Prior knowledge:
Layout: E1 2-10, H1 13-17, E2 20-21, E3 38-44, E4 50-56, E5 67-68, H2 70-80, E6 87-95, E7 102-116, E8 119-124
Parallel strand pairs: 3-7
Antiparallel strand pairs: 1-6, 2-5, 3-4, 4-5, 6-7, 7-8
Amino acid sequence: MEQVHLFTKKLKPTHISHALSFPTHALDAFSFPEGAHTMRFEAVDSTDNVWGFCLSSRLTGSYPKPVLLRSSWRRFVEQKGLVPEDRVAFFMERSGEAGGMVRRYTVRAERKVMMLMGQDVWVDVEDVPLYGPLN
């Protein structure tokens, strides 16, 4: 199985309170039904929980402007305790076995816990102490 990094995004306050904007290039990893501008997909997190997301792209304008809709994104944000400056990363695993392309999506929610030798150190939010990030 080949793992492809789709994108990593540092969260802003609007990502926490509303929707997560999706990079346009990441749309190539999703198969929208013919004529549709929304689709549901599942992603597995680092603790093997499955999250259902709804990805939408606009019908008008010069580019699709994809977002994860608040209705599906907000549950993930709340359950993970995400705050501005945390980050999320999406990946796709694919395999050409059994005569077809199998896709499995994964999502990681991470928090910066320190800087070590000039590099940010990020860990899964589940591994961060309950009292919050370390400075």
